[in-house]
Amino acid sequence: MAISDLPLLNALLNAASGFCLLLGYYFIRRKDVAAHRRCMIAALSCSILFLTSYIIYHASVGTVRFGGEGGARTAYFAILITHTILAAAVPPLAVVTLARGLRRRFEAHRKIARWTLPVWLYVSVTGVIVYLMLYRLFPRV
Asked: What is the tens place of the pLDDT at every residue in 110-122?
């Protein structure tokens, strides 16, 4: 795998993390705690792999400039800014939420999970959107 393949890998890892989050939510709504736990650990694993790949990629190539103009540029930066701010919140939210669940502190887990899920899901989905806009729809030529 080449460095140039990492943005696609990152998008796939973001998508996989989002899918695991949704699947985990589905399972907990059906009271299948074991399946929920597996999905949440898988989502965290995907996110850790994403972060590792993301750091490797950007340490190698630096900043990638957006190639779009006008409304597309405005939309891209609106998505990117919200994505970046919320992405900084995901690691501590995810770790605290997971720790409370694994320690069987379910009431505390539920309280923070109500914040963690939408933030983490937003970051996962917008990560894929940022990839599509930056590398597929409006690549810098």
From this structure: 999 999 999 999 9
State CA 138 to chain mean position distance. 21
Gap between the Cα atoms of 97 and 109, Å rounded: 5
Q: For the domain 3-137, what is the CATH superfamily, name and number?
A: Cytochrome c oxidase, subunit III, four-helix bundle (1.20.120.80)
> Which helix H or strand E contains 3, and what residues bound it?
none
pTM strictly above 0.90: yes
Query: What gap in Å lies between CA 24 and CA 43, rounded to an integer?
Result: 9
> By three-state DSSP, how is residue 67 classified?
coil
Q: How far apart are CA 119 and CA 106, in angstroms?
A: 19
